[in-house]
Specification:
Two copies of one chain form a homodimer. With 804 residues, chain A is α/β, with parallel strands linked by helices. Chain A folds into three domains: 243 residues, P-loop containing nucleotide triphosphate hydrolases (Rossmann fold, 3-Layer(aba) Sandwich), CATH 3.40.50; 158 residues, Aspartate Aminotransferase, domain 1; 331 residues, Aspartate Aminotransferase, domain 2 (3-Layer(aba) Sandwich). In chain A, 36% of the residues lie in helices and 18% in strands. Chain A contains 25 helices and 28 strands. In chain A, strand 2, helix 2 and strand 3 form a beta-alpha-beta unit. Chains A, B: This is Pyridoxal phosphate-dependent transferase.
């Protein structure tokens, strides 16, 4: 199954007709419009599509059109005789229920065929109201959303119709539809058209009132049918004479043309006005910018300007293979999240946070504390993005360390202990937490403040999981390590006593000792991204190494200050003394901005290490891919380091929109959804695929490490001639390509693969992917359809494994 | 007119009955519920309020209740005989139309009286559907929103009713309502109740289907009425026997109790879990935290736990006097902004920005470039908040300067030129742009990098606008300056040639000369908050001083580098050479995060100085008070400083949600609304109030400087014995109090005034205000009601001017 692109042609103006309610005259409006098109000029051809129709065949909407808008092409895809909602009609017909994807594909194909056959105006009429269920019982407004056809809304002229019309309009807006016009019958008693004209005028949406149609016959027989036909024919004649439908059609045409013109000019305009993040504009041309009309589920709807035949839609489904910079979890255009955002906006707007509390901020904080699985983390500090959240984490860690060790940070440099290739954001404070690199060294105020360990990296190569040692460890450990399953790599508790475990610890201990005692460095925090260092190049760190780093730091506080010992718990402050919550050696900060909240298949990626951080930062997936929000969680002990009678000792950090209600509400919705998915076993199929078949796997770890990307793909790609290494975990797939130029920013091999994924013009969708040096990675939502993922895997196999 | 608090009592469970459409059986549902209450126990008393009723008196809903739910107290506030929408009925009645505020106040008073009289259950029934217009033609869902009563939604059991019920539900959600239950009639043919039961179950909203009521008589006469009454009586008896209404009532009661319990526990829970921004938690208690149930317009609905008599609602309207940390522009819970947010969320979610463009990001960038009034600013860089936007601005400015002057910033310190008391955010990079102070000096990595000028400050004292000189200028200028009007202070062009102007320039020039040539400092940018330095203590800088600073920096590039000259325009790059766009001396950065976008009454506060910055940062009001978003705008020349064949020369800065669609869409809506308000003269009344009456005011400046706060108030307060100085501009009012302790963080005088504004328990609303040292400030939206502002002014007068 291929995803459907949104539907947009220059020659064919296609609209979806939605009704504010059932029986508001959708088909009459359609007839009026098609009739007008047919009468306009001989070049115009109208077409009418009723995807799903219920009710007696004789009364079917497409037949009505054929009678009263002569010459209009009509089609009905699915017809059910019972005049009930389609979701009930299908049950009564007892035939195979058409799948939503099939309905969408049929609508798209019909419109495409028409576009190729010279049809200039097409209407796709829905059944009932906007939320009337389709055959699979979900709302039509959701069912047809991927097409995102502009809407002709037929409003309700009856008593109560103002309300139902506006609510129907709002339901469409919440789903990202553009309503291009509103039509309704004129009723001089209720005057809904006057009220609604004024209402929609403010939104620049044209509204056209039509004369009331003749009443329907009380009974249907040959005579009444004939009389009705006659009356309707006279009615349509009257409408054509008296109502300025032509000017409405011109407005609809203009809006269609404007939409395409705008899409055509967007790249040029963006090139003139937008300063892009992380982008070298030198040599960049407008054509390098992709206009995105909209997005739904895992797909962008991207504008394809040129090289199209007339029947091809100007919009194309493109798999968002970076999950929009690693933010998407529940799909684009998610109506539940959109409604959550609107609810919080409607209930609060924003509430200034200090001294106040509101439900979304409290709910989210409590949900995180209760569910994150780290008993140390008791306090939640809100900021707006990973970078600011890490700034707060660093301020917390440094203060706690300086406080305990009595250091005066204004007089001496306090440094960070971390890993090479780490990345924590682009504000200058957290840039200083990473070693000098392409990303930061040209920033005028950058001053790297720390020491960063080189570390052993995991990848699959030639069908085997390998841990490649950096030079200094390679010497002493003799060779790289090999594992038959990823579960073996993650059997950290078992591996602690291995030669590697002992060597890692000794190496870490002696390195820190040298830094502190020979070079006089002072360290204020240990910062790690658990398992995967994302922006640094999708580096997969041996979990044992990170675990050892944490153990050495906590087990040897004397390394950092000669007088330090492991602190005893304070039972007065920590009511559950069996749980260790005091930090030792250095405060440990986990940057889970990328790796947390199910990105790697688990709520917290710290669980892979079995290390409870003292401070942890989450963002990205937190809001399911909607708005910026970040939480920095900390232990009570870290919190108390800022407690003093002096206001100036407090953590004097804040942003205007701290804990904004919209973000918190969306985060609660998003987190709860993902937690429910985990509990209900939504990912069990993936887990099964990744369960090692070998014996000797530690009990309890079975299927604990898994990916949405198939194990077979990873294994197969690891044999590909151009592939240096590959891994998948959770929603992430990473492919390192061999590169004669040596990788890094200059790498071209990965860009070549990226190009091949974009230009699959065989009628399937595109894949939008991102490249980091010689690494191409792909990332899905946690809700991605397995068929879509396997289909993308097919593209990868074709690109990397086929002998061409 | 006082604002109405939201309605919430423990003893009285009050709900609003909304219908999915008209004629869905709202009154029957109300009767069923009231009937059940009345039958429950003798302690229970039901009450029914129909604020606005249309239709024949005999058929009125409250009469129906009286007949069939005997003993229920009923009330109708406004009755219109014509069975049409209230907005049409009022026209036909030709009486005075009740104002929305009056309707709200009456509903609130009725409920309060009932709460005090032992009523345990009350329903407030709306007319028609959720969006059916009230007497003043706006939607009931908006009209009643300030009360935010939990909703009993009566769904539609007819064909099409699934759609209209869900849409009605969504319209309520978008406005921040909580739907506590759904009822509808059972229809075994359409089975809407089955579909909706499943739908609302997923949202944890109980749905109860009721038996279908007997059909209405075809005609109304004495006989049919009697028959109908009998049939209805039998129906209600049947319902009472067969439907489990009691369990629904228990659920409603439980939800009411849960809401109050939660509000009661929120402060304690927040105290346990939340680490507040800018807050010293030492000594802070749960009672210092205010639970905010919701917010609407300019008011929080704050929870008042104790000291209430039974008739008082537990929620109280509290004026958001800090405009929620200076973010609010168009009022809390603004339905238009909420719908804009939902539209973008539904259309896109988030779209990763590099290499892509989407409509909201492009529209906003173009709108800003076209409307901001500074021809230099041509490129828009998006970030998430003022702090990150300023980090970007600093990176831009430093790069441009180092590039031109050939400095190697990795080897030498490049500094910032600024003003004392400036504040640019809490990320460490921009903290370094401010001089050492309480806010930053205890941050371990803070290293102030710059020089900050002391500056002359403006305030009104004893009825006169005074400019107080810092010591070094006081000596040479002899005395403080005085002006009879604020327009005089802002007559910057005229004042340039005054003694003060000449002295300012000379002082600035010689200071910079000394810093560079004696102390060897190198400067990379000039950063200013135009006019008002907000977080630094609402410091009002003499605009002439900031103008002179810009002129000296631009006019004397040789100050910063001996070889520098004013650069000639490059006509190839700048197509309109008559507009100067090249930076000279230093790039000038305006931090308009607080002062921009109408906070001071103008789109850009730079216009007060008539200086076009090279880089400008906007945030806060940008999104009208909904979600974080920031724009850093720059000149093409600054942009080109990052252009090179090397990727690593680019501005490698970005955040995951850069240019998120929700924020951009809301910003477009918000900005366009404010621009429309300015053009349509919405603030002309304020302008008039501030037009100087004196002669000799420079032409063209009349009424150009104005405030929503009345000129009379400012003048009167400036005479108050405890007031040191006062000023108002745009939406900002600032009152400096005399403080024997010397001001600063230890100041208590301002806190005293703050307390007096909170504790006005005379039935009026509270005022939530913020204090900065010895300054208490108040800030409104641009849409605040003038009556509300004048009413707050009354509180200030009482607190500061009455002789008690």
């Amino acid at each position: 199954m291929s995803p459907v692109g949104a539907a947009l042609w220059r020659s064919l103006r296609a609209h979806q007709v939605y009704g504010a309610n059932t029986d508001v005259g959708k088909t009459i409006v359609s007839t009026v419009l098609c009739n007008a098109i047919q009468r306009q000029t001989s070049q115009n051809q109208a077409a009418f599509l009723k995807p799903v129709s219920t009710g007696p065949l004789d009364d079917a909407d497409d037949r009505h059109i054929q009678r009263h808008a002569a010459g209009t092409w009509t089609r009905c895809l699915y017809q059910f005789e019972e005049p009930v909602s389609p979701h009930i009609a299908v049950q009564q017909k007892k035939t195979t229920i058409p799948r939503d994807d099939d309905i969408l594909a049929s609508v798209h194909k019909t419109l495409s065929d028409w576009a190729g056959s010279g049809v200039s105006f097409a209407l796709v009429e829905t059944a009932g109201g906007v939320h009337s269920p389709g055959p699979n019982a979900n709302s039509q407004a959701d069912l047809y959303r991927p097409l995102r056809l502009p809407v002709v809304l037929v409003a309700d002229s009856r008593l109560g119709g103002i309300s139902s019309s506006i609510s129907a309009y709002e339901s469409l807006v919440v789903r990202g539809y553009d309503v291009h016009s509103v039509l309704l019958f004129r009723d001089e008693y209720y005057k809904n058209h006057e009220y609604l004209l004024n209402y929609f005028q403010k939104k620049s949406i044209p509204l056209v009132p039509l004369p009331s149609p003749p009443p329907k016959p009380a009974t249907w027989n040959v005579d009444s049918l004939a009389r009705d036909e006659e009356a309707m024919a006279a009615y349509y004649g009257r409408v054509a004479q008296k109502t300025d439908i032509m000017s409405l059609l011109e407005q609809l045409n203009a809006k269609n043309a404007e939409r395409i013109d705008r899409l055509e000019s967007m790249a040029r305009r963006a090139h003139a006005t937008i300063w892009y993040p992380f982008t070298q504009h030198h040599g960049m041309e407008a054509k390098d910018i992709t206009p995105i009309d909209s997005a739904y589920d895992d797909y962008f709807q991207t504008f394809a300007e040129s090289g199209l035949s007339p029947h091809e839609s100007k919009l194309r489904a493109t798999f968002d293979g970076s999950a929009s910079w690693w933010t998407q979890g529940l799909g684009h255009g998610n109506p539940s999240l959109a409604l959550s955002a609107a609810y919080a906006a409607g209930r609060y707007g924003h509430v200034m946070f200090p001294g106040n509390i509101h439900e979304p901020a409290l709910s989210l904080a409590e949900l995180l504390v209760q569910s994150i699985g780290n008993p140390r983390l008791r306090k939640v500090f809100y900021t707006d993005n990973g970078s600011t959240g890490m700034e707060v984490a660093v301020k917390m860690g440094l203060r706690a360390a300086c406080d305990r060790y009595g250091w005066d940070a204004s007089q001496e440099q306090i440094s960070i202990l971390g890993l090479k290739g780490s990345y924590h954001g682009d504000t200058i404070g957290v840039m200083d937490c990473s070693e000098p690199s392409t990303f930061n060294q040209k920033v005028e105020w950058y001053r790297g403040r720390g020491y960063w360990f080189d570390f052993p990296q995991v990848k699959m190569s030639q069908g085997v999981w390998k841990i490649e040692m950096p030079a200094h460890l390679h010497e002493s450990l003799g060779s790289d390590l090999e594992f038959s399953s990823l579960d073996g790599v993650f059997a950290v508790e078992n591996r602690l006593q291995s030669a590697a475990g002992k060597r890692y610890k000794e190496y870490i201990r002696s390195t820190i000792h040298g830094l502190v005692h020979k070079h006089g460095m002072k360290f204020g925090s240990l910062i790690m991204e658990p398992i995967i260092l994302g922006a640094g190049g999708m580096l997969f760190c041996d979990p044992l190494f990170q675990r050892c780093l944490a153990e050495v730091v906590r087990g040897h506080p004397e390394l950092f200050d000669p007088s330090a010992t492991r602190p005893a718990q304070d039972p007065a402050q920590d009511p559950a003394p069996e749980v260790e919550t005091a930090w030792s050696g250095l405060p440990i900060i986990f940057d889970e901005v990328f790796t947390g909240l199910y990105r790697l298949g688990r709520k917290s990626s710290a669980s892979f290490l079995n290390v409870d951080a003292d401070i942890a930062v989450n963002a990205k997936l937190l809001t399911g891919g909607l708005v910026p929000l970040c939480t920095t969680m900390a232990s009570d002990e870290i919190f108390r380091a800022f407690s003093s009678p002096e206001k100036s000792d407090a953590l004097l950090h804040g942003h205007s929109y701290t804990a904004h209600a919209v973000g918190c509400q969306v985060a609660v919705d998003s987190l709860q959804t993902m937690i429910r998915m985990e509990r209900s076993g939504s990912w069990d199929g993936y887990r099964q695929d990744w369960t090692p078949t070998q014996t000797g796997t530690p009990a309890g770890s079975r299927g604990d490490v898994w990916s949405v990307w198939s194990h077979g793909l990873v294994s197969d790609l690891s044999h590909a001639p151009s592939v240096d290494g590959v891994f998948a975990i959770g929603t992430v797939l990473s492919i390192s390509l061999k590169d004669i130029q040596g990788g890094g920013y200059t790498s071209t091999a990965a860009r070549g693969l990226q190009q091949r994924l974009v230009s699959t013009s065989d009628g399937k969708f595109n894949v939008h992917s991102r490249v980091l040096g010689n690494v191409l990675y792909l990332m899905s939502s946690v809700t991605s359809q397995v068929e879509a993922l396997r289909s993308i895997e097919g593209l990868l196999r074709e690109a990397l494994l086929s002998r061409r």
